[in-house]
Amino acid sequence: MTETNLTPAMNLFINDVRQVVRVGGGEQVVTKKIAARLRSLLQERDVLDPRYTRPKPDKPVGYPVWVEPDGSFCVAAVVWNVGQVTPVHDHGTWGVIGIYQGVEHEVTYKPAIVTGARLYKQTGEKDITEREVIVCCTSDRDIHRVSCGSNVPCVGIHVYGADIGTIERHVYDPQTGDVRPFVSGWTPLEE
């Protein structure tokens, strides 16, 4: 991953995110500032090299657009092909997403005690449309499942408060309550 893969607009965005993260102020403040900057970025077209928008036939993918060397944040292009769905999962950090192409369908969950067992109850469902930006996760709101909600691949620009490809996260089974750790890794960018 080199800066030569990045458009000038994306380089400026990354510099803005770097400054916001350095200034800090808590995750609510940081995510609000990054969301505002991501909204501006999405008003421009062609901010991603087309290689970052390629889906894979077998699963959703996360391309590392930028990982800050100290691990304090990353920018990812996450791509779901039509019909693809993630498992129910968390992030372990704050996150802001903006839809570059298509529609992302999100279903949110929270822990619930049902007949003495800890299960995961669906709490919401929504479509996030092209150029829309949301704070997808903070420490108090962070379990969801996402899928492509359009008839074209969904491409999201995601900003996380860590190197999301290398940190331990969790997958949840809403019916059984099972929780297992995983590390998502990164999908290599193909030439």
Structure, explained:
The chain has helices spanning 8-23, 27-41, and strands spanning 61-67, 74-80, 88-89, 95-101, 104-114, 117-128, 133-137, 144-148, 154-160, 169-172, 179-182. The chain is of the alpha+beta class and 191 residues long. The chain has one domain: Sandwich (Jelly Rolls), CATH 2.60.120.10. Strand 10 (169-172) and strand 11 form a beta hairpin. Helix 1 runs antiparallel to helix 2. The radius of gyration is 16 Å and the shape is globular. The termini are close together. The model has no long low-confidence stretch (mean pLDDT 92).
Brief summary:
By secondary structure, this protein is an alpha+beta fold. The protein has helices at residues 8-23, 27-41; strands at residues 61-67, 74-80, 88-89, 95-101, 104-114, 117-128, 133-137, 144-148, 154-160, 169-172, 179-182. The chain has a five-stranded antiparallel sheet, covered by helices on one side. The protein has a three-stranded antiparallel sheet with strand order 3-10-11, with no helix packed on it.
Descriptive keywords:
11 strands, 37% strand, Jelly Rolls, alpha+beta, globular, 191 residues, five-stranded antiparallel beta sheet, three-stranded antiparallel beta sheet, 16% helix, 2 helices
